[in-house]
Design goal:
RNA3'P_cycl/enolpyr_Trfase_a/b; aromatic amino acid biosynthesis; UDP-n-acetylglucosamine1-carboxyvinyl-transferase, Chain; single chain; binds shikimate-3-phosphate; binds phosphoenolpyruvate; alpha/beta; EPSP_synthase_CS; 12 helices; 3-phosphoshikimate 1-carboxyvinyltransferase activity; 26% strand; four-stranded mixed β-sheet
Length: 429
């Protein structure tokens, strides 16, 4: 399904932030790895979090759910011996479960999104799991991937952090359950380092002890630990909210998003500081971000690695800023649902934005006068491209048609409902 985004000068209203995708996937996983019954309050509902629900159920977790909570009885360190898992298009879910699947004798992760997740590399994690003696069949580091695990024991492991932090997170979920103590050394640079902070936070909540070095490059993980069954509350989602905040920033607006914790460990919390630096009028108090946009924004320079899933929304805001913005240290955006530098900038250019790419940078020459619009946008199976181009469409001169916009459901199924509720002119076709 496509959406048509019609230029909308004013947005107004209140939105309850969606629940965090990254915390939901983590809480579902640690609940499944516990013996006993855990409760997760306000879990996210999206294709990615549903993928984790489905897979942990396939692996033996018992799940009961109502509107507000999910109750999970875990399988501990004994996942069911199943043959196949389908993670949809969810990168984090795949990588975390590849590690857990090494406790199973023979599991194949199928390739249901050959043009998106099917193109993403997993070599670095494959290499680390092989160090633990796990036998892995793969297609040059890509799906479909078969894991023949059984009894990995732990020990010394290295993992590259160059492409994704998810490989390290995956090892941090697995190693506490192994028979021997483990030592993990991260090689190269660690990208998306802040997200590892969320992994460590959740592990600690689940009663797991990990000794991490201050720079997050070395870990000592005692073995023979047991995940504890606990009660968790999922906080609001900054990456998805970043797109709504960017929309409010580029229009005349009076928009409040509730449930965005000021002390959150989500790096994408930086959207608030970035918009502030762009001189967008806003406040952040009592977990409410209140934007009163006046269509005026100033360019900025920003290290995007600190807020990886909000960079596309920030770039969309910069399209209308006065001056030239630069988002640097963002090379790993190339290894996400699509190449979020080349593919995204191609779509922005179609819409009329003036953008340039480097291997690890996005440069935006702002157009405060607005962009032309009036074209069809290819979503590249990427929810964040869809949300960011919707922001651009609000301030184009003619409507944008975003093809296959239903892929927004990967993280934010009700994004367009939320946008319409604050006045955005959006129509499904
Ligand atoms: O661990 C996680 O849940 C995630 C880590 C990040 O990926 P990278 O580490 O590949 O940047 C982020 O982009 C993704 O949406 C979720
Ligand atoms: C990159 C993302 O997710 P994943 O890597 O889990 O597919 C995202 O949500 O933007």
């Amino acid at each position: 399904m496509d959406v048509i985004v019609t230029p909308t000068p004013r947005l107004e209203g209140d939105i309850q932030a969606l629940s965090s995708k990254n915390y939901t996937t983590r809480y579902l996983l640690v609940a499944a790895l516990a013996n006993g019954t855990s409760t997760i309050h306000y879990p996210a509902h999206s294709e990615d979090s549903d993928a984790m629900r489905r897979c942990i159920r396939d692996l033996g977790a018992i799940i009961e759910e109502d509107d507000k909570k999910i109750v999970i009885t875990g399988f501990g360190n004994h996942p069911k011996d199943i043959r196949e898992l389908n993670v949809g298009n969810a990168g984090a879910v795949l990588r975390f479960l590849m590690a857990i699947a090494s406790l199973c004798p023979d599991v194949t992760f199928v390739n249901t999104y050959p043009d998106s997740l099917g193109k993403r590399p997993h070599d670095d994690l494959i290499d680390s799991l092989q160090q633990l003696g796990v036998v892995i069949e793969h297609q040059e580091g890509k799906l479909p991937i078969t894991i023949r695990g059984g009894q990995p024991k732990g020990g010394k492991i290295t993992v590259s952090g160059n492409v994704s932090s998810q490989f390290l997170s995956a090892l941090l979920f697995l190693t506490p359950m192994l028979e021997e103590d483990s030592e993990i050394e991260v090689l190269h640079d660690l990208k998306s380092k802040v997200v590892v902070g969320q992994t460590l936070e959740v592990l600690e909540q689940a009663g797991i002890i990990i000794h991490a070095s201050e720079d997050l490059m070395h870990y000592k993980v005692p073995g023979r630990q047991h995940y504890q069954a606990k009660e968790y509350i999922v906080q609001g989602d900054y990456p998805g909210s970043a797109a709504v905040l960017a929309a409010a920033a580029v229009t005349n607006s009076d928009v409040k998003i509730h449930r965005l914790a000021e002390n959150s460990k989500q790096g994408e919390r930086a959207i608030v500081d970035v918009l502030r630096m762009m001189e967008v009028p806003l406040t952040h108090e009592h977990d409410i971000v209140h934007v009163q946009g006046n269509q005026r924004l100033k360019a900025l320079e920003f290290d995007g690695d600190a807020a990886t899933d909000a960079v596309l929304a920030m770039v969309a805001a910069a399209v209308f800023a006065e001056g030239t913005s630069r988002f640097y240290n963002v090379e790993n955006l190339r290894y996400k649902e699509c190449d979020r530098i080349t593919d995204y900038l191609n779509e922005l250019r179609k819409a009329g934005a003036n953008v340039e790419e480097r291997q690890a940078e996005i440069i935006v020459h702002g157009r405060p006068e607005g962009v032309e619009g009036g074209v069809e946008i290819n979503a590249h199976y990427d929810h964040r491209v869809i949300m960011a181009l919707s922001v651009v469409g609000l301030r184009a001169k003619a409507p944008l048609r975003i093809k296959d916009a239903h892929h927004v459901a990967k993280s934010y199924p009700i994004f367009f409902d939320h946008m319409k509720s604050i006045g955005a002119q959006i129509e499904w076709v």
